[in-house]
Amino acid sequence: MRIDSASDALGIYISVPFCRAKCSFCNFASGVSSPATIDRYVGMLCEEIDAAGVTSERLGADLPRFVDSIYFGGGTPSLLAPSQLRTIFAALGRNFEVAGDAEITLESAPGQIADDLLDEAMGLGVNRVSLGVQSFVDRESAAVGRLHTERECVREITRLRAAGLPEVGADLIAGLPYQTAESWNHSLAVASGVGLTHLSVYMLEIDEDSRLGREVLAGGQRFHAHGVPQEELAATLYEQACAMLSQHRFTQYEISNFAAVEHQSRHNKKYWQRAPYIGFGLDAHSMLRRGEGAVRFANPDELKDYVPASRGGQVVLVAEREAFEETIFLGLRMNAGIPTNDLRERFATELVVPCEEAVRELVAEELMLAEDDRWRLTLRGRLVSNEVFGHLLEKVLV
Asked: What is the per-residue pLDDT for 5?
């Protein structure tokens, strides 16, 4: 049993949990903070990066030093000052060897990446920007607290491509307040024709970790909760995206992600393929090899609790059963699915056989495909993926 990986290269995630405004649907550990707070945070972040070797040794984990992907997520990492970005890259350079062709991604909100920061980022090797667009319809954007308009989004994408950035992606959300099939079609049409190389399509999460989600669950009116479409419409919008984007060279390669092969996100594929990665900063998660197995660990999700010494506070050992479960629910997220021969070679029969029985049941319900020695989700299966994963793992846990 091992961590799956096409290579031994490490992926690094850098959490920058600061925004100009908190969107009502956001359930991430992020918020609005002062420049002084951000500067202190960058200092602690670099301390944590410098301590990575000591931390991994304490956890008995193998920390690769060769890195082929770095992802600045948030929050809105583009709000960093050029000097702060340089400081973080300097810390990474002291501790890791970054591949010359590494994929280096910076998340941003449209209109929130200044010229000097863009120049600095590209000079440091950033070659991919992911924009939190969510909608190209102004009413929908305003309803959830986004600060941009369709015109500003299009202008930003055009500007980034003109600057020579090879990869520019965007996120869209199905199920926003006031969204209709017609307005969603408009967002998809703009997204597929404006020069983007990658698109992520998410269904709005209704949970207690966001202001909008709490209001919807409570049946309230604040945050435009009354305008959130029914779950059935959100599912229809997702199907609409899958059909339309494929006609514009955005091939679906994962439940939420669409791109031509050469534009797929190397960093995100590490998560789904269970390759080693380490996260630095607030609420950052990691998975590294440990002997024949693996170890997962995470940072606190409250800024007041985040100090470099807190690294690895939540530690989970990944034994064979846990590795099998992760292989199933992460591997099935990808359209390529899971090679069944690989499962049989790597995992115990008592884990694989019950899962095979469950797959046959799901194939009969047209939620999965089992062909060409692979298991895959159907479109219907992707729409109810959590239920499919639950059914598969339930058989294993008996």
From this structure: 45
